[in-house]
Amino acid sequence: MDFQTLRDNCPTWQDYIHHEFVNQLATGTLPKQSFQHYLKQDYLYLIHYTRVMALSVYKSDTLAQMRVGQAGINAMLDLEIGMYLEFCEQWDIPLEEVENTPESPATIAYTRYLLDAAMSGSLIELYAAIAPCLMGYGEIGQRLKAQGFVDNNPYQPWIDVFASEEFQQVTAQNEAFVNELFAGASPAQQPKLQKLFNTASRMEVNFWQMALDLS
């Protein structure tokens, strides 16, 4: 088993990658309020995601696996969370508002699902649950770059992050790591890994929809 197998057998993967939120983002037609709502909720999501990465260190069997988890924590705390706070500032969202925004039902459902998978399952199950997020944004960035950018898109800075060569390299490294983990899955484990992946992908779809609906 590998990431591609999970992806190809996920019924909602294309709904996630080609969601209307992403399409409107690419054309610059996404309502400002939807992007602002997304930024605030994704900041809250990333806080919990960092906790999941901390659990990945705890669940690791080898020093190399622990270092991957540590790198994920560092990337969240030192780079990505800060990047989202910068986006919030650029989109007229004060820090106090970001930090005091209630979690939406979609954010609660998704983050608690990941935390439950991380706490109750093995390392390989943890990575099956976070794989849609871990690799999906790279695929979205690659797709948007391939289809071409529109002029004067206010969302271009966000697109540029995930379409960048640096982010694509990180995504490839992450895929190689999870493939190494998934290769050790027994036939009996594979249905559970697929279920974890499928559910997380469905949660990603719901997260985009939440932003569109301002829910």
From TrEMBL:
Annotated keywords: Hydrolase, Thiamine biosynthesis
SUPFAM superfamilies linked to this entry: Heme oxygenase-like
Top-rank lineage group of the source organism: Bacteria
Catalysed reactions, semicolon-separated: 4-amino-5-aminomethyl-2-methylpyrimidine + H2O = 4-amino-5-hydroxymethyl-2-methylpyrimidine + NH4(+); thiamine + H2O = 5-(2-hydroxyethyl)-4-methylthiazole + 4-amino-5-hydroxymethyl-2-methylpyrimidine + H(+)
Molecular function (Gene Ontology), one example: thiaminase activity
Pathway as given in its UniProt record: Cofactor biosynthesis; thiamine diphosphate biosynthesis
One GO cellular component term: cytosol
E.C. no: 3.5.99.2
Protein's UniProt keywords contain Hydrolase: yes
Top enzyme category: hydrolase
Signal keyword on record: no
UniProt cross-references to InterPro entries, sorted A to Z: Haem_Oase-like_multi-hlx, Thiaminase-2/PQQC, Thiaminase_II, Thiamine_Salvage_TenA
Thiaminase-2/PQQC domain ranges (all copies): 11-213
Pfam families: TENA_THI-4 (PF03070)
GO BP terms in the entry: thiamine biosynthetic process; thiamine diphosphate biosynthetic process
NCBIfam families for this protein: salvage_TenA
Record-linked PANTHER family: BIFUNCTIONAL TH2 PROTEIN (PTHR43198), SI:CH1073-67J19.1-RELATED (PTHR43198:SF2)
Similarity section: Belongs to the TenA family.
Cited function: Catalyzes an amino-pyrimidine hydrolysis reaction at the C5' of the pyrimidine moiety of thiamine compounds, a reaction that is part of a thiamine salvage pathway.
Name listed for the protein in its UniProt record: Aminopyrimidine aminohydrolase
Source organism of the structure: Psychrobacter pasteurii
Gene expressing this chain: tenA
